[in-house]
Amino acid sequence: MRRSLKESFSYAFWGLIYSLRTQRNMKIHFLAGIGVLTLSLFLPFNGYDYLFVFFAVALVIITEMINTAIEATVDLFTKDYHRLAKIAKDVAAGAVLLAAINSIGVFFLVIIPKIKGLSYLNLYRIRLYPFHILLLLIGLLFLLYTFLSYGRSRGGRGHF
């Protein structure tokens, strides 16, 4: 069965929404990521700073989604305790833990030094750089798409 590009993006997006709806840790990581990215709008970041912060946030979310997929797959095949199933779930959770530790390191190495130099003048930077506006637009589009898609998911596409 060959899927269209639109269907492939739709399934990928629904995977993200499923993770956000069902996984407590995913909600925590996602909210923390939004908070850090929002904070970064007010700090005097250069391109590399944004790169490190965005990569750290994305890595945590990606590993959490992989963890969710592995847990669902293992649960599909066995409901009983199995040593290999435990190893698979523990290793996936360990990957999330390492990504979270990495993001904490990025927070202390990139964000904390910038907070020390924060002043009211930096609050006006948001109007000066189109990159900030682009990030805000992407966030708003994501929220809009999530809101609009939520209504369609109740129509019975069978994702949830």
Automatic annotation (TrEMBL):
Superkingdom, natural source: Bacteria
Entry GO CC: plasma membrane
UniProt-annotated binding residues for ATP: 11, 71, 89-90
Keywords per UniProt: ATP-binding, Cell membrane, Kinase, Lipid biosynthesis, Lipid metabolism, Magnesium, Membrane, Metal-binding, Nucleotide-binding, Phospholipid biosynthesis, Phospholipid metabolism, Transferase, Transmembrane, Transmembrane helix
Names of the cofactor(s): Mg(2+)
Residues noted as binding a divalent metal cation in the record, renumbered to the chain: 71
Membrane topology: Multi-pass membrane protein
Pfam families (alphabetical): DAGK_prokar (PF01219)
One of the protein's GO biological processes: phospholipid biosynthetic process
Protein's cellular compartments: Cell membrane
Catalytic residues identified in the record: 64
Co-factor remark: Mn(2+), Zn(2+), Cd(2+) and Co(2+) support activity to lesser extents.
Record: residues binding substrate: 64
InterPro entries for this protein: DAGK (IPR000829), DAGK_sf (IPR036945), UDPK (IPR033717)
Membrane-spanning parts: 28-45, 51-70, 91-111, 131-150
Molecular function in Gene Ontology: ATP binding; kinase activity; metal ion binding
Family statement: Belongs to the bacterial diacylglycerol kinase family.
Name this polypeptide is given: Diacylglycerol kinase
